């Protein structure tokens, strides 16, 4: 039952909320706008907001000078790769814990979570040395391994909270109707599990895409995903705001859009089901 | 309905995850612990003798360590204060009826999806730069001297940047919790003549307390490990003005190649994080029983 709200109150709320929201969003908006300016316009005094000659040159320049596409593909391969491998490992585990819980299930879940609490810097040295000795430094496969492992607890947990909500009654009903295990899995369980798996996939790609500790420490020119590539703009030469903005816009755009669609899942995934 | 057979199958299904995580945890952790007791520098090849707690003593008595601990606490504390207070305010605001809720929400949560290196560089160059940044322009218009944020107030500037990234997280979680509040309770209070403030203080805030705790604990885990933002803005400087524990360990290990000391620092970082983790795990564990 909605409370009666006067139009005036609603108008005031709207004004305040929009003002704050635009302020919060402004750095992103400014970055996107700057990416379409020339370097001269980007630092114009006074700053120009919308009325400038829009150009796509920066995007072309960024690609030409630094092979941007390569780093973009590194990000795609590493985030999607680590997520898919993580799901393959985690789905059976989460499935078993949700549908055949044993006495140890809760302990196992809590222990998995505790591995996520390990500060990455605590294992930086050995991992760096292992990577160096095994020739994994600056390789995509090395990063895929690390990101799979650091996000595995989150994947298992998220899947578990989704699977646990699938009512057992439906499974039993299917069994009563004479469904075989195979058809039970394919026609009953899988359709109900798909939304949960998709949400987990989405959230985990976002997390892996933005991961910036291991990507910065374990890659160089070759396998650097966008997080590490963008960091190379921290010691600039000459005018570069527009180019930085173009590189940044391309780096955040795909994930921003995915993020907008995964607000709900984000809450569940990052609080380990403690807030839904 | 679990049979002997299905239990065995369940174990096999869980095994890969457990084995991988166990290896991921024990092997590097064991190595860190082992290295922390050796004199081991990558620039000085030798036989890496066992030196007991020498590395710990060296790391802990280094003035940079005290600075790093203070900076870590200021970073975590400052960001928590801003994001939790701001998050509560925004959650209350966004829970009100208004036009365009969807778009407002999207704008507010967006910073969370911006990768750390991008947000740090955008703030550093396009906003905080004392010559070409927007803040310098605004100061100029207002007749003030431009302020060199990252040199004169490096830690506060980083607190600002990271708060911008995490405010959406706090807001989103608190808003989700807020929306599970029974609106009839609020209506009843309103009919009894409770003011907006007392409705907030006596009904909404207690309802949010759980979610607030979760936000604080989870953010603390992540904030203890802030790294990329420091690396691309200040490199921990000037001096050690913006060096946190994570950055200090990184500097010891990968800039000075002192594996022994870096490992000792890593062990200390693990102990600190575990103190927080214990509380967080208790909360989540309770929820699991519910």
TrEMBL record, chain A:
GO terms for biological process: transmembrane transport. The chain crosses the membrane at residues 12-33, 76-96, 108-129, 141-163, 184-207, 213-233, 240-261. PROSITE patterns: ABC_TM1. Keywords: Cell membrane, Membrane, Transmembrane, Transmembrane helix, Transport. Pfam families: BPD_transp_1 (PF00528). Gene3D superfamilies: MetI-like. Signal peptide: none annotated. It is a multi-pass membrane protein. Belongs to the binding-protein-dependent transport system permease family. This is Trehalose transport system permease protein SugB. It comes from Palleronia abyssalis.
TrEMBL record, chain B:
Keywords: Cell membrane, Membrane, Transmembrane, Transmembrane helix, Transport. The chain crosses the membrane at residues 12-37, 68-94, 106-123, 153-175, 208-228, 264-284. PROSITE patterns: ABC_TM1. One of its GO terms (cellular component) is plasma membrane. It holds the Pfam family BPD_transp_1. Residues 69-280 form the ABC transmembrane type-1 domain. Gene3D superfamilies: MetI-like. It is found in: Cell membrane. It is a multi-pass membrane protein. The keyword NAD does not apply. One of its GO terms (biological process) is transmembrane transport. Belongs to the binding-protein-dependent transport system permease family. This is Trehalose transport system permease protein SugA. It comes from Palleronia abyssalis. The gene is sugA_2.
């Amino acid at each position: 039952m909605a409370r009666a709200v006067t139009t005036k109150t609603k108008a005031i709320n709207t004004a305040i909320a929009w003002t704050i929201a635009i302020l919060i969003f402004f750095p992103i908006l400014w970055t996107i706008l700057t990416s379409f300016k020339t370097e001269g316009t980007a630092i114009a005094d006074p700053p120009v907001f919308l009325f400038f000659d829009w150009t796509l040159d920066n995007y072309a320049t960024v690609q030409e000078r630094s092979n941007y596409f390569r780093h973009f593909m590194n990000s795609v391969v590493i985030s999607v790769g680590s997520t898919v491998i993580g799901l393959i490992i985690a789905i059976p585990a989460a499935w078993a814990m949700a549908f055949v819980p044993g006495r140890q299930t809760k302990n196992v879940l809590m222990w998995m979570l505790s591995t996520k609490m390990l500060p990455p810097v605590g294992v930086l040295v050995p991992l760096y040395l292992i990577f160096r000795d095994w020739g994994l430094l600056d390789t995509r496969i090395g990063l895929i391994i690390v990101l799979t492992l650091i996000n595995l607890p989150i994947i298992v947990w998220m899947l578990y909270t989704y699977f646990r909500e699938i009512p057992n009654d439906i499974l039993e009903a299917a069994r009563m109707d004479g469904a075989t295990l195979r058809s039970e899995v394919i026609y009953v369980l899988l359709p109900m599990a798909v939304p949960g798996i998709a949400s987990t996939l989405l959230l985990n790609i976002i997390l892996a895409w933005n991961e910036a500790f291991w990507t910065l420490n374990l890659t160089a020119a070759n396998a650097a995903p966008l997080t590490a590539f963008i960091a190379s703009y921290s010691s600039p030469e000459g005018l570069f705001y527009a180019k930085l903005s173009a590189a940044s816009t391309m780096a955040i755009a795909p994930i921003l859009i995915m993020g907008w669609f995964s607000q709900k899942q984000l809450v569940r995934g990052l609080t380990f089901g403690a807030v839904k | 309905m679990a049979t002997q057979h299905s239990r065995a199958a369940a174990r096999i299904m869980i095994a890969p995850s457990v084995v991988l995580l166990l290896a991921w945890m024990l092997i590097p952790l064991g190595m860190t612990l082992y290295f922390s007791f050796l004199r081991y520098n990558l620039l000085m090849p030798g036989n890496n003798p066992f030196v007991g707690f020498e590395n710990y003593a060296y790391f802990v008595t280094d003035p940079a360590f005290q600075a790093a601990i203070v900076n870590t606490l200021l970073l975590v504390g400052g960001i928590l204060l801003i994001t939790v207070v701001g998050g509560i305010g925004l959650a209350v605001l966004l829970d009100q009826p208004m036009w365009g809720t969807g778009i407002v929400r999207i704008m507010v949560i967006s910073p969370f999806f911006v990768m750390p290196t991008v947000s740090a560089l955008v703030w550093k160059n396009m906003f905080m730069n004392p010559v070409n940044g927007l803040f310098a322009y605004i100061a100029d218009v207002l007749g003030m001297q431009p302020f060199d944020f990252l040199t004169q107030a490096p830690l506060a500037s980083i607190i600002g940047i990271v708060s911008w990234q995490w405010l959406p997280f706090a807001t989103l979680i608190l808003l989700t919790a807020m929306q599970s509040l029974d609106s009839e309770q609020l209506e009843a209070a309103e009919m009894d003549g409770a003011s907006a403030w007392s409705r907030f203080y006596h009904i909404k805030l207690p309802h949010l307390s759980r979610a607030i705790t979760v936000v604080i604990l989870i953010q603390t885990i992540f904030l203890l490990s802030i790294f990329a933002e420091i690396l691309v803005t200040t490199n921990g400087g000037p001096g050690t003005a913006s060096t946190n524990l994570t950055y200090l360990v990184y500097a010891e290990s990968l800039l000075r190649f002192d594996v022994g000391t870096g490992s000792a620092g890593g062990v200390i970082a693990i102990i600190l994080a575990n103190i927080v983790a214990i509380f967080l795990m208790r909360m989540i564990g309770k929820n699991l029983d519910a």
